[in-house]
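Handoff note, outgoing to incoming analyst
You'll be picking up this chain. Sequence as last confirmed:
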Amino acid sequence: MIPTLFRVEVEKVVGRRIVWITSAVIALAMVAASYGILAIADATADSGDAVAIGGGDGFGAAVAALYFTVVVIAAVIGARAGAYDQEKGLFRYWAMTGVPRLSLFSVRAPAAATVVFVTAIPAIVLAIVLALALPTNGGPDLSWGDVGQDVWWLLLAAVFWTALSVAIGSLLGGSGGAIAISLVVALLGDQLVALLGLINESLGAIALSNALSVLRGTDSAEGPVWIAIVVALAWALIPLAAAAARVRRAEV
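Most recent structure output, in case you need it:
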């Protein structure tokens, strides 16, 4: 039953083509823009100060831009997915099929997260192709180990930020406000939490972005992995539990 519900939910999200097609185009544009900016920087640099366009440095810059793009896409698609049935008044009719309400709700975040990550795949492929094709200008070559870490980071972003946005959409029951709040939480709230690290390093560790950086597995990330796992799960599961409780009460 769950696989069928998952497929139906994916088809529902993909059915809103303007959202995910636009998101895929924006992700491609962000990658192209990242390499374009590096190319301009290299062209305008003083002699002897060449800027790496491709290779590891270029790919890293593209992935950094793509990460924030994925966060925004997750906020939009996740919030819409969470609010859709309540906003359209359809959840009661789904429940009339005899499928438990929580089963319907349980597939929503995984389905939306799948669509978010798949939406980013063309941009990831473009980033890899350009990193291999463009000059490194003395910078490091593209490492497939780094590619794996970066793709893993983007997958984590898709999963956890989408889950949070689905929860917000389900709690609010309206996509407009849910998208706005999801964006505020992702782009402002999380960064404010990260700034708490200036007061106390352990406080900054509760930011989801910091937790995902630790789980990414790069040498620059600091902090115990188990704390990062707990923090990431808390950001996703606590709001989802609250949203599931609201959905269950609303349909009784």
